[in-house]
């Protein structure tokens, strides 16, 4: 089985699932963090809250900054001025003590970890995702219009292995 399909199985067949679509703007990460806190607390997995919120924050920030539509006229929703509106879709899922986090954006470019200089104020997000997640991967969306980034966080006793 392909690695992304294996990760995606938590998203596609969960016990619990919630999805939020956000405009790709500077408010998206904060809204995504609040949504994540609310969902995980409702599902009783508060012990995974810090890891999941960090991952969601970094992935939605990356999607907002780097996940824009390359070109126009791709059938995306239009804003007031007729320009396409870039969106970020966050899906959270819970299956057997594993929290699945999926962030979709409109750029087909895969996320690439950067080497940040000592004094840089950005460029460490994917390193934080790698440290906080049990595993993560990215792939193009099925329609070819963007990508999906999936990360998993599991309880230590969880039977599912990444």
Automatic annotation (TrEMBL):
<keyword id="KW-0418">Kinase</keyword>
<dbReference type="InterPro" id="IPR036890">
    <property type="entry name" value="HATPase_C_sf"/>
</dbReference>
<keyword id="KW-0808">Transferase</keyword>
<dbReference type="GO" id="GO:0004674">
    <property type="term" value="F:protein serine/threonine kinase activity"/>
</dbReference>
<protein>
    <submittedName>
        <fullName>Anti-sigma regulatory factor (Ser/Thr protein kinase)</fullName>
    </submittedName>
</protein>
<feature type="domain" description="Histidine kinase/HSP90-like ATPase">
    <location>
        <begin position="25"/>
        <end position="138"/>
    </location>
</feature>
<keyword id="KW-0723">Serine/threonine-protein kinase</keyword>
<dbReference type="InterPro" id="IPR050267">
    <property type="entry name" value="Anti-sigma-factor_SerPK"/>
</dbReference>
<dbReference type="InterPro" id="IPR003594">
    <property type="entry name" value="HATPase_dom"/>
</dbReference>
<dbReference type="Pfam" id="PF13581">
    <property type="entry name" value="HATPase_c_2"/>
</dbReference>
